[in-house]
Amino acid sequence: MNPEYTNHEIQELVLSVLATADENLVVPIVQLGHPVLRQQAIEYTGQLEKPVLDQLLEAMRQTMYEAPGVGLAAPQIGIPLQIAVLEDLYPIPDSIAAEREREPLEYLEIFNPAYASISDREAVFYEGCLSFDGFQGVVTRPADITATYEDRAGQKHTREFSGWQARIVQHETDHLSGTVYVDKAETRSLISETELWRHESMDVATAKKVLNF
Question: Is 172 a catalytic residue?
Answer without folding.
Answer: yes
